[in-house]
Amino acid sequence: MSSFTETGLVKKLLDLNSSQQSIQTLSLWLIHHRKHHSIIVKTWLKELAKAPAAKKLTYMYLANDVIQNSKKKGPEFGREFEHVLLKAFRYIAQSSPEPKTINSLNRILNIWGERGVYEEPKIKEYSAALNEGETARVEPVNGSEKKRKPETVLSDVLTESNKKARPTVGVTVEKKAKSEVVEVNGKVETHITLSPHQPDGDPPEPEELIKVILELENSASSDAVVRERIANLKPEVSELAAINKLEDKEAAIKLATDVNDAIKILNDYNARLATEMEDRKKLTTMLRDFQREQQELLLQAENRLEEYQKKLAKIKEVQKEVRNHMNNLPDLTSLPDVTGGLAPLPSAGDLFNVHH
Predict the structure, then answer these.
(1) Each residue's pLDDT tens digit, 159-197
(2) 191 pairs with which residues across the strands?
(3) Residues 317/231, Cβ–Cβ less than 8 Å
(4) For residue 57, what are the contacts with CB-CB under 8 A and spacing of at least 6?
(5) Distances in Å between the alpha carbon of 171 and those of 160, 178, 189, 201, 319?
(6) Phi/psi at 98 (nearest 5 deg)?
């Protein structure tokens, strides 16, 4: 994943569009660089203020994705955005947004209220700023719904949109919808403006992944010394028939000691194996999330490569035309001397003497 720079962040924000892939890819990148949360949110607000009205909505979808998906990693983004969201909603209200933009943002506020992303007074404050002092249209927060999983964010938004959508706008939504048909500037488009599902998990830092892999090199299953001790345990400790062969108390005490030692060794080793199993499950999940992120970044890189290859091809065409044009231009150095044999032009002094 690319390193963080403020210039790079501005470039990514300018390139952002309202597609699912664009929003989720940038959201993952921002969460990956969450230690820069302060400058990220500050830059986000600055770019939102300068963006066209339609782009402001996309920036809000990005903020929503980051706020909800970063909670597993820590509260940094949630707290940082809380300080600037009031200004953001005011900027949007001042940009004369379309009614459907206001409706989309109000649905986000309703979802934040239901999930307890922010306290209800704060939600009402944001809503008042967005609706320019109108009565905040935030539904009462149902305490039982605060605990709902964030995976239902999009289905809630689209369901609410279905209830309020105009008859001229067709919306096809299923419980696990991945797209919606919406009207944008008079044109009907298949378009996703909110992530259709929350990622299974935040992609791990490469350092975290490497650490877990290295720790598993010393796992229980690779401990040949303990496995050899277990293999060399006396057969009597696992055979009931050995009890019948005991002839005196001393032999019984020795067998009991051997059995207790074997139990301790096996209990410890089994506990280590259980821990290893959990670690490997964790690693499997981390690898899956890391692979998912890399696949998204690979797709983004492939798209950019294709775009720049086309651009390069066009530039090469221009280069070829320039060369052809240059080859067709006359070589002035090879032209004949048209002044050969002619008298030189008179000087200023000669002209003066002629008139006098």
Answers:
(1) 444 444 333 333 333 333 344 444 444 444 443 333 333
(2) 180
(3) no
(4) 18, 92, 97, 101, 104, 105, 193
(5) 11, 12, 10, 29, 48
(6) -70, 155
